[in-house]
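Per reviewer request, we include the raw input and output of the structure prediction for the construct analysed in the revised manuscript.
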Amino acid sequence: MRRTPVSLVAGLMICACVLAQSGPGAVRQFTVDDAWGRDAVQFQTTAPMEDIIGTSNQVTGVLKADPGNLTGPGTAARIEVAVASFKTGIDMRDGAVAKALGAPKNPVAVFTLEKIKSASPAALEPNAPVDIVAEGTFELKGVRKSITVPARITYVPKGGPFSRMRPGNFVRLTARFDFKLDDYGVERDGPVLPLQVGDTAHVTVTVLASDASAEEMKTYRDNAIKYMGKARA
């Protein structure tokens, strides 16, 4: 795997919080569930005749950690993406991608964090990116395999201009990883598909997790419905 980390996953993701309000060993929880659909998982394959890029905003998850000790036992994360929701620019191809990724029987791809192998530095400070190496499992099409994912996380405290748009403190996660399609039973048989679909998927995950209260999140979702006519499902 050549790139830097998902949850889509992802491992990645660690919670941060208002450090001044959290005592030693305090585990905080942040939720990935943006009603406006800004969180994203993207894949790209490169083949002799074309590149295929698919993007989904149907991303959900939970990140937990002690912000003062990212490699500690309290760190946990799970990120899911609905595989039938990837858009590639061609509707007919979207259906073929969903079928190839096993959507009828396994509707989500899941990254589950097992541990943070390393973090530099080991604690989150406001607006200071931290590079981590996460170990976990990636499950797709009913196949679960262990993967190592490098990622970058940043704690963004509430109170700045962005708080007028979205409630809570935030953990911003970016991650990239590669996987072989054959390892997860994703077929590209025949004389033509190998010319269109590469054997490796390059995955990018970008999420902004929030610790907003249930009441704050309801207001945020209601605003999405007000201005867009709907909220992310």
